[in-house]
TrEMBL record:
Gene3D superfamilies: P-loop containing nucleotide triphosphate hydrolases. The keyword 4Fe-4S does not apply. Residues 1-228 form the ABC transporter domain. Keywords: ATP-binding, Nucleotide-binding. It comes from Microvirga aerilata. Pfam families: ABC_tran (PF00005). The keyword Coiled coil does not apply. It comes from the Bacteria. GO terms for molecular function: ATP binding; ATP hydrolysis activity. This is ABC transporter ATP-binding protein. The lineage of its organism: Bacteria, Pseudomonadati, Pseudomonadota, Alphaproteobacteria, Hyphomicrobiales. InterPro entries: AAA+_ATPase, ABC_transporter-like_ATP-bd, P-loop_NTPase.
């Protein structure tokens, strides 16, 4: 997509977005609630018309032509399956609705269940499955048409670690088979573990795109966040000392932070805090997470 703008009335949801996806690439979109992730996906599937700019999927406009829409599948965040049917029954019904012939359905259902590893639950009712299996079945339904581009809206939200790893493996297997994958997530660790590139959406713009390791290096270099957890809320004189030591308040009144690339800075800070009689609960280094990345971007955007 190039220079894509989408507005809902006076509200601009996407403001000049450029993005291209390679074959067999996993691309993770990161951003706050309301930053435009779902709007971007719906623009790609042709569900919403863009206000201006160009969207091309397999060289065609999905807003006007059916062909690119047939080559992609969107896995919504909500489970779009019949709770009172089994996994297999759901997939058979969905296959019919997707326009597959009776002759094609059994084989496609087997393939979709194999990739998502739900065969052992194929005779269970959806309503009896765990959250992780429901999500896998949801993805299986999207795979029946053998899409070349798979779009997933927060595929792992609310599932436990084991189910999350199983879902990641499914997505990697699909990538190996040449499927391009665009997913949204709030989880930087997930993006790090899974994606070839990420795009960080902030206020309808892609503020950063690239491999997550490169983005973090570019933004933070070698510096790491030092977080000081105070034992009690600081008095005004204590606040003055904390600021003098280079610390800044965070949203949590008991947590103050600073950034440093020096190896010894944590120990020196700890000693200085002790000398000033400031009672601390803990002091630690924190790897940058999505919150730190977004705060930095928003700070740069003013
Ligand atoms: N149909 C609509 N009508 C009006 N405003 C909309 C519509 N869809 C989205 N918006 C607005 O566009 C902006 C982007 O929304 P979008 O749903 O794309 O964000 P998101 O990043 O997917 O958020 P979330 O993480 O909560 O799913 C928001 O301000 C939202 O309120």
């Amino acid at each position: 997509m190039s220079d894509v703008h989408v507005s809902f009335g006076a509200r601009a949801a996407l403001k000049g977005l450029n993005l291209s996806l390679g074959q067999g690439e996993i691309f993770a979109l990161l951003g706050r609630n309301g930053s435009g992730k779902t709007t971007l996906m719906r623009a790609l599937t042709g569900q919403i018309r863009v206000t201006s700019g160009e969207v091309r999927v397999f060289a065609k406009d999905p807003g006007r032509e059916a062909q690119p829409r047939r080559l992609m599948s969107l896995v919504p965040q909500d489970i779009a399956l019949y709770p009172r049917l089994t996994v297999r029954e759901n997939l058979e019904v969905m296959g019919g609705m997707a326009g597959l012939s009776r002759h094609e359905i059994p084989q496609r259902v087997e393939q979709a269940m194999a990739v998502t590893r739900v065969e052992n639950r194929q005779h269970d009712l959806i309503e009896h499955l765990s959250g992780g299996y429901k999500r896998r079945a949801n993805i299986a339904a999207a795979l029946l048409t053998q899409p070349k581009l798979l779009l997933l809206d927060e595929p792992t939200v609310g599932v436990d670690v084991e189910a999350r790893l199983a879902l990641h493996q499914t997505l990697r297997d699909l990538r190996e088979g040449g499927t391009s994958i665009l997913l949204t997530t709030h989880d930087l660790d997930e993006a790090r573990a899974l994606s070839d590139r990420v795009g960080i959406l902030a206020s309808g713009r892609l503020a950063e795109t690239g491999p997550i390791g490169e983005i973090l290096r570019r933004m933070f270099g070698d510096s790491r966040e030092i977080v000081v957890g105070l034992s009690r809320e600081p008095t005004e004189p204590m606040e003055a000392i904390l600021k003098e030591l280079g610390l800044a308040p965070t949203a949590n009144p008991l947590a103050w932070n600073s950034w440093s690339a020096e190896v010894g800075s944590l120990g020196r800070l700890e000693t200085a805090l002790e000398q000033h009689g400031i009672d601390i609960h803990e002091i630690r280094l924190r790897e940058p997470g999505l919150e730190q990345v977004l705060t930095r971007i928003e700070g740069d955007q003013g």
